[in-house]
What does this fold into?
Amino acid sequence: EEPKPSLRILMVGWVFSGKSAAGNTILRSEVFHFGERTMKALKQSGEVAGREVVVVDTPGWWKFFPASFIPEVFKTEILKGVSLCSPSLNVILLVVSLDSSFTDEQKRVTEDNMKLFGQRVWRHVIVLFTFGDALGNKTIEQHIESEGKPLRGLIDKCGKRYHVLDNMSKAGDQVTELLEKMEEMVAGNYSFYFSETDDLQQEEKNFKRGVSVLAITKCHSAGGAA
It folds into this structure.
């Protein structure tokens, strides 16, 4: 049996949402520094459930401030995280901690910061809830329902893909289940890619016709010169 291809994961979310701890839980090793703010994109890898898993941790954004407040150096590091997932990024885990409420403000801030990855990013995103022990006796579905429209709206943007990790638990099945959800999403997805073109749908149509945006631009330029 051929080995499964590696799974390349980018962790994003607000500061102290538990990204680094989640990365450690997924890789089952203390490879990320938990308890201090992540300042640079950091790549770690290991074998999990019989396949190579690459996890890239990135600097978080401020929970109550829009993307314009993030220093450019941090934005650069977040985008660097995508390149560290070479040859292509498979999954973006959007980390949301369960130890605090998710309001309309958090939804706006989250969506504002996710614009950094382009308009089609949501088809590659799974919401990863951390601090699963904060649920107590509630299920995650009960929590999502009790939080109301903001959190339900975020889940909907991600195609209702979500998972819970208890970073204090050593139970391996929670990671195995997460990998299965990732594989299911990746199987039905295009590869993640960046484009500075605003109209990505038009760019995709041009690609299917075998004509690049650059070629179209050159044709227009040639016609104007004539």
